[in-house]
Design the sequence.
């Protein structure tokens, strides 16, 4: 029995953190009157203006909202006059009902505007000004870089059409491929070292964050994700990285790989029986690590096996001898 350690070395690629991507689009038809962000790669902060949009639908709902506010104000004045002249018993109940109905209609109009991403602050500005705004400003929902910009000034856009893709690069993912026979040895939380040729002599520490459940039919590998902080922005998506995962497999019965003769159907080792006699024995093998291979069945702890440097077998014996 001996401690068995495995080092998995693979190549990873830096990718965006999918949880920190944002797409900016419209929920109504409109035209881009003005762009505040003109180039891909530009950095924007959350709340920063991206574009000015003109939309007949947004203009219409503002006019409806203003008319309802005006109607409620007039109706409230009439109701007060009716009360002052003691008409309340006759018209008061009806007036209250009409005022309540108007409040409901105003709330419906406000909710429609919210559904179209008009903020409460913008609604208050419309109410204070007493007239509709021709254009509405679209603001950035996150801090990040503009990674795609289909938006062009003057362009007509449909509901759901993408205007900007934004990516927050304060953290990035490293996606590495792990071979299927190595998957049983890894699990989330295991430490890893990551290095990039762009930063010689520098290593980053990380841990396995997630093991993807799908296997590539072409490479027989599964993707494994690591997360790295990137406050300086030095780590760019699509950079390649070297990934090293050191795994302590615990104490296991293991022998050198060269001690095993693989006939294609069986794995044979030669057990030292003293006096120059070696007994061929079939074994069942497990994990391989650092030139050692685990023996699951066929050997006992303490038994000695011959390795190729000090025990040579004639090639004809391999084919015709007891290994068959």
Sequence:
């Amino acid at each position: 029995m001996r401690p068995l350690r495995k080092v998995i070395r693979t190549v990873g690629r830096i990718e965006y953190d999918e949880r920190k991507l944002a797409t900016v689009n419209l929920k109504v038809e409109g035209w881009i009157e003005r762009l505040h962000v003109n180039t891909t790669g530009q950095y924007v902060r959350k709340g920063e203006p991206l574009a000015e949009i003109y939309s007949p639908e947004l203009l219409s709902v503002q006019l409806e909202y203003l008319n309802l506010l005006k109607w409620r104000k007039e109706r409230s004045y009439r109701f007060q006059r009716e009360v002052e002249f003691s008409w309340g018993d006759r018209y008061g109940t009806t007036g209250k009902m009409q005022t309540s109905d108007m409040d409901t209609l105003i709330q419906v109009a406000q909710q429609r505007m919210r559904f179209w991403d008009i903020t409460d602050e913008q609604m208050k500005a419309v109410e204070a000004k007493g007239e509709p705004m021709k254009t509405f400003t679209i603001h950035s929902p996150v801090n990040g870089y503009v990674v795609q910009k289909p938006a062009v000034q003057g362009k007509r856009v449909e509901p759901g059409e993408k205007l900007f893709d934004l990516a927050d690069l304060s953290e990035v993912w490293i996606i590495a491929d792990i071979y299927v026979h190595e998957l049983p040895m890894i699990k989330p939380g295991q430490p890893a070292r990551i290095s990039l040729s762009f930063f010689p002599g520098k290593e980053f520490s990380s841990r396995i964050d997630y093991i993807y459940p799908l296997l590539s039919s072409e490479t027989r590998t599964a993707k494994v994700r690591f997360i790295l902080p990137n406050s300086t922005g030095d780590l760019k998506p699509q950079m390649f990285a070297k990934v090293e995962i050191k795994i302590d497999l615990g104490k296991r019965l293991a022998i050198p790989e060269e001690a095993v003769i693989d006939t294609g159907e069986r794995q044979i080792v030669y057990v030292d029986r003293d006096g120059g006699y070696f007994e061929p024995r079939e074994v069942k093998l497990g994990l391989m690590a650092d030139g050692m291979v685990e023996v699951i069945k066929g050997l006992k702890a303490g038994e000695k096996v011959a390795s190729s440097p000090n025990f040579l077998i004639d090639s004809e014996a391999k084919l015709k001898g007891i290994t068959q």
Summary: The longest helix spans residues 56-84. The longest strand covers residues 2-16.
